[in-house]
Amino acid sequence: MKTRINGDWVVGYENGGHVLYRQACVVYDGDRIVYAGDDYRGEADRVIEAPGCLLSPGFIDTHVHSGHRALHKLLTDHGRADLFGQPYMDVTIARSGTRIQGYPNYLTKEEAQVDPGIALHAAFTVSELLRNGVTTFVELGGHVIVQEALWRQCEALGVRGYLGPGYDSGRWASDDDGNLTRVPYPDGGLHLFNDAVAFIERVERDPSDLVHGILVPREVENCSIDILRRTVAAARDLGVPMATHAGYNVIEFYETVREHRKTPIELLDSVQMLTPALNIGHANFISDSPRLNYSGGRDLERMGKSQVSVSHCPINIVRRARVLDSWKSYREAGVNMTIGSDTYPRDMIMNMRTASYHGKVMSHDLTAASAEQVFEAATLGGARSLDREDLGRLAPGARADIVAINLGRKDVLRYGPIWDPICSLVECGVGDDVDLVVTGGEIRMRDGRIPDVDLGGLRAEAQAFAEGVWGQVQDWDPLRRTARMMCPPSFCPDCE
User: Fold this and answer.
1) Helix axes 116-131, 455-470, angle to 10 degrees
2) Are the beta carbons of 395 and 51 closer than 8 angstroms?
3) What is the mean pLDDT of residues 458-478?
4) Which residues pair with 186 in a beta bridge?
5) Which of 41, 187, 194, 395 can bridge 13 by disulfide, Cβ–Cβ 3.0-4.6 Å?
């Protein structure tokens, strides 16, 4: 069935880049786009009117972690200074002899199968992404059971997921005083790697385009040379992309230099992992960063020459007093910039705005990280990172992944007069402005409502689950802090 969507503006695609049309339409037949522009003369079986809307490719979130706000996703403005603002080290490393409630990596397979939080987290995550106009996402390294739950939600809600169980060769552990050490696994993590490969092989056999595999060695400092080399070989054999966290924290940077006499980026290069198939999570602490005072490094040059992708998660890192230094330099070096949410809110529009503002400040150039550049990163950049020429664009032959963003809402004055809808979107928009989401030619959300998903009920369920977690934080926290001590509520005089 041929469907036509009429909008006030359409982000089309010509000559390798986006182009904007006024009073235009997108037409799709089945799961493929057949037309995007302002001069369609053909017939359509169905017409959807989207007055006041910008019709855009679905957003591609290249850095997602399944979950909600129960742990570090709540801890804005707080964290351990001795961990240099790294949230996962603060709240997902348990005191010796204890386990973190609600964190899948501490569960056995049998426990994970019946844990109520895993299904809840997956439903919350995929629903939030869909509500915010994300039609494709990359999950960076959750437990196998987490990936299974996400797979079910991708199929149920019609969101495209790149899923890959995370693996490494050891993990961070804490003693009773909060001091961290790295503890290797007896087999160097081979069992985790094999589980990931088996999962990906199963995913790749699935005929649906809604699920795909990706190899994710979680954090570069916790991965052996052998595991990294196995990743490169498996990516080649399976034909899937790779992702990892690298250049994301001061501790990780210096641990890698101490152990290997290489920066994290140099280490990845040494095992031939720096390729266009690699998505590096964050990469904001690289040798070129003045914050590291590291002399003689050429990480940015290496990344650019290899045409790697960086999943830039601006809201996450700026909350931890960190920044990318700088957007303009990364782009000029040849790095493929993409946008990820990583943490809450999973709002790609807000992340585009944050990337733009800080890109300008850190580049010392008001023309840097322009609205069109960050919009491109959230669409075409994400597609390039996955080697998908059929995503991130509204062009004949591309997948019918379309979002309608209502810039003409009559219940807000946020947008004001609109001269350039892309600038207005980046400067003034939020994810709640997304009215319509189509993936693979199927309407997945309309008028801001997802069929069969009670967002209010889902949020209430998440709140109840989170309160159960917060009441027990002191049972596993390395410093025996309560939730109120870890994250003092605002205007709380007795929380000091």
Assistant:
1) 130
2) no
3) 90
4) none
5) 395
pLDDT at 69 over 70: no
* Separation between Cα atoms, residue 123 and residue 127, nearest integer Å: 6
Higher pLDDT, 110 or 120: 120
Helix, strand or coil for residue 439?
strand
Length reported for the chain: 496
Range with the poorest average pLDDT among 21-30, 44-53, 211-220, 286-295: 286-295
**How far is 420 from 307, CA to CA, in rounded Å?**
31
Topology of domain 2-58+394-446 in CATH is: Urease, subunit C; domain 1 (2.30.40)
What's the CA dihedral at 413, 404, 128, 445 to 10 degrees? 120
Residue intervals in the chain for CATH 2.30.40.10: 2-58+394-446
Per-residue confidence band for 92, with pLDDT thresholds at 50, 70 and 90: confident
Q: What pLDDT score does 257 carry?
A: 97
Report the Cα 125 to chain-centroid distance in Å.
11
> Is pLDDT at 72 greater than 60 in this prediction?
no
CA separation for the pair 483, 71 (Å, rounded): 9
Helix, strand, coil fractions of the chain, as percent rounded to 5: 40, 25, 40
79-to-153, 341, 490 alpha-carbon distances in Å: 32, 19, 15
Q: Which residue ranges does the chain devote to CATH 3.20.20.140?
A: 59-385
| The two three-digit tokens of residue 91, written as one number | 């709240």
DSSP 18-69: EEEEEEEEEEEETTEEEEEES---S--SEEEEEEEEEEEEPEEEEEE----S
Where b means 16+ CB within 10 Å and e means fewer, 25-39 reads bbbbeebebbbbbee
457 CB-contact burial (10 Å; exposed 0-12 / middle 13-18 / buried 19+):
exposed
- The structure's pTM equals 0.97
User: Does the structure show a pLDDT above 90 at 321?
Assistant: no
Q: Is the pLDDT of residue 231 over 70?
A: yes
Q: What is the pLDDT of residues 117-162, one digit of tens each?
A: 899 999 999 999 999 999 999 999 998 999 999 999 999 999 999 9
Q: Which two tokens stand for residue 207?
A: 């005929």
Cis peptide, bond prior to residue 345, ω within 30 of zero: yes
* Measured CA angle at 378 (ends 77, 46), to 5 deg: 125
